[in-house]
Amino acid sequence: MAGPFDAIILGGGPGGATAALLLAHAGWSVALIERARFPRRKVCGEYLSETNLPLFRRLGLAEDFLNLAGPPVQSVGLFARETMLRAPMPRRSATPEARGRALGREMLDTMLLARAGSAGARVWQPWLATRLVKQGDVFLCEATNRETRAVKLLRAKMVIAAHGSWEPGALPTQPTRGAPRSRDLLGFKAHFRDCSLAAGLMPLLVFPGGYGGMVHTNDGRVSLSCCIRRDALERARRASRSRSAAEAMWEHLSRSCRGAREALAGARLDGGWLSTGPIRPGIRPRCSEGVMVVGNAAGEAHPIIAEGISMAMQSAWLLCDRLAREKHPLLNASLREVGRDYSREWRRTFAPRMRVAACFAHLAMRPAAVGLLLPLLRLFPTALTLGAGWSGKTTDLAITSGD
């Protein structure tokens, strides 16, 4: 038995590590369970908008992030069929550092979790939370070491689920494994070197049955991530000589998208392709009986807007700032009030960009809609700037310094 802790956090990605760091700074005793060893790569677009800079400052990590991340993103683009468009990225601040940037998850996640540990959070890694039950006012969480198979039982007054939404499991906040569906979105990601993508440009890639994005990330690499419908991937595999789903997807994308094909002509794959899925965007319950949910487990936008990391970290802020301000945050009545406030604020902050993301994604995956929109976008490319603003690229949270 380990504990008692004030909170157990399930998952050490951006949402979980941010929550652990904020609560540890507030004087809470925190246990965090993470299933993977870091550093590790993830299927992820890697971009963080400039709205995260105040939160990085609050966490004491702004300087580290700016030093490690890729170059500032100054333009949003669209690569669809033979069309290649570029427009300014909307801005919330005129200061030179206030630009979005990309940072590989192998570096971002390691940095955040290490800072949470140094702030006092107890980190169990690589451990897997296998069972969660409530006995009276206390949660008991069984965790198993994935390497030694040792078992621990942790107890706490509350639980924060930050385990993402893709991995099925036995916990009440995890999805069950459903039957494959033709409309399932499958995710792919790779890094490239010697890429000719224009500096400061983050283009949206549109191709039949899918969409994706490219961005300059850390260490001189370009990150390419994309989603494709299961039925479109199956057609691409039938048309390809490759045994690899990722290679078949890339052949399909490059045939359909001139911009991606030209940007990666002569580029070198760095580290191989990653894949995951199915990705099923949507809003999920965010609190129940002392279990609070942040990150993709609370709600996942279509990756077309590149706001996944931002939403994970910012949702952790919305919850933990409210918990830290509560006089008696671990009393049942207080937890219920915090949960109601958090759910209301989460929906106010993130639901609009999720609706925008769903609209953009559904249009992007329909060739007929793309054919109708491209002539208009060629005439008015600044519509891309407007769309990036709608997706949350300039939506601020009221984040204080904590001093």
Kindly summarize this structure in a few lines.
By secondary structure, the chain is α/β, with parallel strands linked by helices. The chain has a domain at 2-55 and 104-176 and 281-362: 3-Layer(bba) Sandwich (FAD/NAD(P)-binding domain). It has eleven helices and 19 strands.
Description:
It is a single chain. The chain is an alpha/beta fold and 403 residues long. It has a domain of 209 residues: FAD/NAD(P)-binding domain (3-Layer(bba) Sandwich), CATH 3.50.50.60. 35% of the residues lie in helices and 28% in strands. It contains eleven helices and 19 strands. Strands 1, 2, 7, 8, 9, 10, 17 and 18 form an eight-stranded mixed β-sheet that branches. Strands 5-4-12-13-14-11-15 form a seven-stranded mixed β-sheet, sandwiched between helices. Strand 12 and strand 13 form a beta hairpin. It is globular, with a radius of gyration of 21 Å. The two termini are 36 Å apart.
Give the radius of gyration. 21 Å
Structural class: alpha/beta
Helix content: 25-40%
Q: How many strand segments?
A: 19
What's the CATH H-level superfamily name of the domain at 2-55 and 104-176 and 281-362? FAD/NAD(P)-binding domain
CATH class of the domain at 2-55 and 104-176 and 281-362: Alpha Beta
Encode the helix/strand succession as letters.
EHEEHHEEEHEEEEEEEEHHHEEEEEHHHH
What overall geometry do the principal axes of the alpha carbons give? globular
Beginning-to-end CA distance, first to last residue: 36 Å
User: What is the residue-averaged pLDDT?
Assistant: 93
Please give the CATH architecture of the domain at 2-55 and 104-176 and 281-362. Answer: 3-Layer(bba) Sandwich
Task: Predict the CATH topology of the domain at 2-55 and 104-176 and 281-362.
Answer: FAD/NAD(P)-binding domain
Strand content: 25-35%
State the low-pLDDT regions, or none.
none
Can you count the helices? 11
